[in-house]
Amino acid sequence: MRKSGLNVGFALCTALLLGQGLAMTGPSQDELNNADQATDSWLMYNKGYAGQRYSPLDQINTSNVAQMQRMCTFETGDDGGFQVTPQVYKGVLFFTQANRTFAVDARTCKALWINKYMMDSPSVLTTNRGLAIADGVLYRGTPNAHLIAIDAGTGKQLWDTKVADSTVGYFLSAAPIYYNGKVFIGEAGADWGIKAHMYAFDAKTGKKAWTFDLIPTGSQVGADTWKKADSTVTGGGSTWTSYTLDTATGKLYVSVGNPAPDFAAQYRPGDNLFTNTVTVLDAETGKYDHHYSQIPHDDKDYDTAAAPVLYDVDGQKRLAVATKAGWLHGYNEDSKTEVFKQAMIKTTNQEKPTTREGLPICPNYSAGSQWSGPSYDPQNKMLFVNSVDWCGVVKLGEVRLIKGQLFFGGSMQLDPAEKAVGNTTAYDAATGKPMWKYELPSIRIVGGVTSTGGNLVLAGAMNGTFYALDAKTGKVLFKDNIDKAPIGGGVSTFEIAGKQYMAVAAGNTSKGTAGVKNVGSRIAIYSLK
Fold it and tell me: What is the distance between the alpha carbons of residues 529 and 526, in angstroms, rounded to a whole number?
């Protein structure tokens, strides 16, 4: 097994030397429109605009996945949050960390270039989940709330746009998406008392094209759901992970997280739109179209954090979204109605208000479905979702805003980590009915789930185990531990020169509550020998 690890100094030299010979002009808009069905690439955080995290590739399948082997490993030398899904175009694997962007050969793990972004202001959180790629350019957010463009062939920075003030808690953790000349990204930082927005930027210049206020005021739709006008100044509403888009309608789907302060809901009476919703906007203009609310007036930090998935089943256009509250919601996009609401884990005391004495709840705010949403398998008409069953106690506390500090208005005490149970569960995509469940007691499963035409379900756990399940039964067909590096990222799969590969992001060590030791971040690439 080959390994590749580079320190920063050598990596930057490599960027200059190797980047000169790497030609990259795509993907085109047509390629991006076809990304959900493509077999030679994985172009977005959730593969394509529909967010289905499904590849029709079937060279590796239920009959031979047990023979799969790790071909190479690229070690970044960093620890901390590592929650990307490796993105692939023209045989090059792209991924991000806090302030570095990598281009790596997708077959050999050889570094092609590494870009290091020099931040000019501090950040409250450094997690980054990925990038957009179009016309030879990469776009990503930074921990200090800038949006930057990078030449995909050389790693050279092209432009840098300041989006918000990171010193008061704003940052950009989401993987943006590109569509028709615009780059879409929203702010995170609700837990620090920010007021979030969704943006479109001109892809060539970085100039802002439009802004949508995720905490509405004045005459904006939803403003009347904030009964105390002052509370909108610190209303929250992060967009944490990535976005979904319907190319047939030009509609942009934005999962919006919790209001702030997180637990002291009495400070912000009302339903608090657009927090804890999937909000749908016109991608060209930013104009509001419609929304689906998962939890009005949230007082337990139960974000709608993961991007939704769009799919067609039984002649209906559907949307499904999984939340930190432990629910899988299904909606009919034609009638704009909820079709199902299925509990994925224990859901206890969610309707009861938080108290100063403490309210036991299930799940806690580190459980449910965090930054990873469903995968839709059109062959079997199933949704596959990763979730964590883990409880805790929430307590009300002082509501006090201090610049750059958490603005919870209380606290959350998590149950011991060994009580957490990680799950990969299959659901009927039409009804939301559970079909099978794979459980890992005392081990969290928080990364992305991927399904394939080979009837495989691919995911990883926080003990470092990468596994493949039979899509029809949930039977374990393959397991390999990636150096005990906690897997908080996703699995992508792609074909190069007629051979199928899988890439796994491991080494997510940002969650100390998991009781894991820090193991550096790494990309492991698998295939049949």
Answer: 9
Separation between Cα atoms, residue 184 and residue 283, nearest integer Å: 8
- What beta strand segments (E) does 79-129 contain? 87-89, 92-96, 100-105, 111-116
Residue 18 has what pLDDT?
44
232 backbone dihedrals φ, ψ, rounded to 5° = -75, -15
Residue 471 within a domain: yes
Report residue 268 CA to chain centroid gap.
Answer: 27
**Residues 346-357 pLDDT 10s:** 999 999 999 999
Q: Is residue 479 part of a domain?
A: yes
As a whole number of angstroms, the distance between CA 48 and CA 61 comes to 22
| C-alpha neighbours within 13 Å on the C-beta side of residue 521 | 28
Going by their DSSP bridges, the two strands 208-213 and 244-246 should be labelled as unpaired
pLDDT in tens, 29-81: 999 999 999 999 999 999 999 999 999 999 999 999 999 999 999 999 888 89
The dihedral region occupied by 409, where left means phi > 0, alpha psi between -120 and 50, and beta the remainder, is left
Which of helix, strand or coil describes residue 16? helix
Which residues have C-beta within 8 Å of that of residue 30, sequence separation ≥ 6?
Answer: none
Nearest-angstrom CA–CA distance, 395 and 316: 42
**Is 118 contained in some domain?**
no
Domain-embedded: residue 411: no
Give the pLDDT of residue 441: 97
286: domain range?
Answer: 2-111+123-406+417-528
**Contact at 8 Å (CB) between 340 and 330?**
yes
Neighbours of 248 (CB within 10 A): 10
Q: What's the pTM value of the predicted model, to 2 decimals?
A: 0.95
Are 480 and 474 in contact, with CB atoms under 8 Å apart? Answer: no
Identity (one letter) of the amino acid at 461? A
3-state secondary structure of 29: helix
Comparing C-alpha atoms, which of 97, 138, 106, 132 is closest to residue 8? Answer: 97
Place of tokens 């104009």: 287
Q: Helix, strand, or coil here: 528?
A: strand
Where is 432: in which H helix or E strand?
A: none
Q: How many domains does the chain have?
A: 1
3-state secondary structure at position 13: helix
In CATH, what number is assigned to the domain containing residue 356?
2.140.10.10
Annotate 185-234 with DSSP letters as a single string. EE-B-GGGT-B-EEEEEETTT--EEEEEESS--TTSTTGGG-SSGGGGGG
